[in-house]
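User: Second chain of the day. Same drill as before.
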Amino acid sequence: MSRGMSAGDQLTRHARKIPETPALRFGGISRNYRSLDERVSRLANALRERGVEAGDRVAVLGLNSMEIVEAFLAPMRLGALCVPINFRLTAAEIAYLLADSGAVAAVVDARFAGVLADARTHAPGLRACLVIGTEPGANGDHGDDYETALAAADPVCPAFAVDENSAAYIMYTSGTTGRPKGAVLTHTNLLLHAFSVSLHQGSSGDVDPVALNGAPLFHIAGLSSYLMCLLPGGTFVITASGGFDPRASVELLARERVSSCFFVPAQWQAICALPDIGQYDLSALRQISWGAAPASTTLLRTMIETFPQAAVSTAFGQTECSPVTCTLRGEDALRKIGSVGTPILNVEARIVDDEMNDVAPGAVGEIVYRGPMVMKEYWNKPAETAAAFAGGWFHSGDLVQQDEDGYIYVVDRKKDMIISGGENIYCAEVENVLAAHPGIADVALIGVPHPTWGEAPFAVIVPADPANPPTAEGVEVFARTRLAGYKCPKEIAVVAELPRNPSGKVLKTELRKTHAHGESVIPGA
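Assistant: Same format as last time:
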């Protein structure tokens, strides 16, 4: 018998101890631990009846909902792997993930059933599909009705000893630099992550925390947030998918008496910009977190001023590490503003050069990791896995520097660093400076070809006032008082918004394509 415990086991334990406590809240409706546990067991049995066995992969495609959480948990009870899929993907992109993972079954929202059906023509291994959100018998050839399948299934899942070191999820990376890779995360990865982050952030151990995460559930930030809330038996408030509405989000925080929440920096910027945010009762809010994309010190100061009752913490990491590797505690938010903090419990980190030598404090190097939260492998990609673990450590691709107290500051992604005339330009440093410009609401820096220097910095800017955007000359003058001359962009493009992936990261590959030749572009100029 296994001596480990999966997230599914945690759910069953809470169903026995605190059966009436709400596990999930969505759209004003609650689902308690007893009900959630039974529905997850029914779904596991329904999948088993449709041929899903230990080691098989089950794809899940849908908007945020309680049923999607059930679909994330049910495969665990069979020793199968869950494959969350971004609902914004095209049929061709979904087909790639289905074929790459070898999924044999899927759970899908009715609104995406047609897209999945198109994708299945290129993934013949997918044998069964359950469709959420339609009337029984109305799914055509797309699959079986979800609720009908659950009603017909046994509410008690047969005991199945799941090896805690076996795979639980295949989380596909965002693919900002090419085809997505499937990071294989184990039961141990995810449970130790939940425990380690909670302890490092100084969790009080309350049995009734109410948590909310603004990320989509298919993303590792959303998935891991629910698992962290599950650990102490808390209540997870699910946010609606679709366009982000800052006012609706703040109203939800107030209405649900949320005690802990996470949003990406772009969302926090919109929330803090609400002119009447002080009128909402957010007294229950004890901790607010940000991560998944860089935040400027200007935004961080605004967050601290806007939410004086809450500790502002940072979550830094990546999908392959379950995902958080470093956090900055609330008490350090001002003292070490701009830092992503220090490595959490169970994460060993080094900052190294290209030869894997440790760099001195203050020097820039790549942060590499090892520990029980680091993924098992990239699914079916032995060469990429070997490269990622070269030298016995997982290579993050993040360039950072460490101060004399051991606090880590991110300077760039290794692949985004600009080399101009032999000088390294770190995008995050320049973006942080430009973010303080009163005429700039959002900014991203890329390198563009230069006949003399090889590359030159180029700023893509979202203006604070679209009718009066900053000029390239004005931006350069502003930057030169704060940065060395070679770091200052001499050309800019003014855009309505920056392209981002679901986790809030700017898609610099798109910006490089659009602005491959540089040259300042200002609409209406």
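The domain at 418-514 is CATH 3.30.300.30 (GMP Synthetase; Chain A, domain 3).

User: Great, on to the next one.
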